[in-house]
Hints:
Elements: H1 2-7, H2 12-18, H3 48-53, H4 66-74, E1 79-82, H5 86-92, E2 99-100, H6 106-109, H7 114-121, E3 131-135, H8 140-151, E4 156-159, H9 163-172
Amino acid sequence: MALRRCWRLPGVVPRLLWTSTAQPGASVPGGRMSVSSLGKTHPGCKTTESLLRRFSSGPPGTDVSYDQLKQLLAGRKSVVVDVREPWELREYGFIPGSVNVPLGQVNTAFQLSPEEFKEKYGDEMPQQTDNIVFTCLAGVRSKNALNTAASLGYKHVQHYPGGWQDWVKNEQHK
């Protein structure tokens, strides 16, 4: 009852959670009001802005461009994790300096001990405070890996949405 009183919009909350990319001022599908109107809560209730942030598709600024990735690799400021399957790396190639952890193994891999990780993947295990950039073929799997790592407590996670396809295209033009 308290939730209903604070929100005063019981039917809108499920739609916001369902359409998790709603931005302040955006229309709520099927609703008669905007997301910004949710900020008007009952006195003593938490503001909805902080509640809505929890349901966004990821931390702001998670995309890395080709040029940014090149700089991060050159400065050794990030751990680049390629989440494609090993056969894809053998057949198509890989970004130099990246470590291969297939998407289906990201959840368990990032919970291994550092020794187990190094033995299985041949590289140092990223720490929760390291800057990690996920990559794949075209950006879909890397976004999933980013969300998995963030759910495991990794703070500085990004992804290269262009993936291997964009990398090859840019490298051929150099």
